[in-house]
Amino acid sequence: MSQEELIILIQTGNIKAFDEFYKNNWKPLYHMAYRATGSIDDAKDLVQNVFINFWNTRESIDAGKFHVSYLFTSLRNGIINLHKKTEVRRQHAELQPEMNIAYTNEDHYIAKELAQTLHTRVTLLPNKMQQVFVLSRYQNLSVSEISETLNITPRTVKNQLSTALKILRTGLGLLGTIVFYFFLK
Fold this sequence. Notes:
single chain, Rna Polymerase Sigma Factor, Chain: A, 0% strand, 2 domains, Arc Repressor Mutant, subunit A
């Protein structure tokens, strides 16, 4: 059966035709992928993705104009994307040690105490102000979403939030000011 006939059958969803097409084309793709990656697993994954993409786009392929180079182009793009991802992971791994900060038990204790104090202070806020703060900082709602939820104007939401932050900031002292600067501003 010719390649064009196989593609016409594949377009109709014929699995046997797809299987034959796969058997006819997988090996050169695999060799190219393996040479590019040096990894059996990556090569298999890349070739599998080529055929998955082929299957998913089968209905839009012009059987008369299809050439096997389409598969190699798809594979080449997959290899390029894999190398980009690998490079990003490598760069991230290089930066990771700089980003790891060793926290002591004392740091965890202070953070826990601060969180408890903040929670206590929030519960002491007036009811509407407390609702605005919780919706903004804990549920990440926007001013307009809070306005709609509580049926108040956006300006009132901003005022309530500003006042709540001032009250909490003064109630938590210097450490609270640092926390607000980095996390709750």
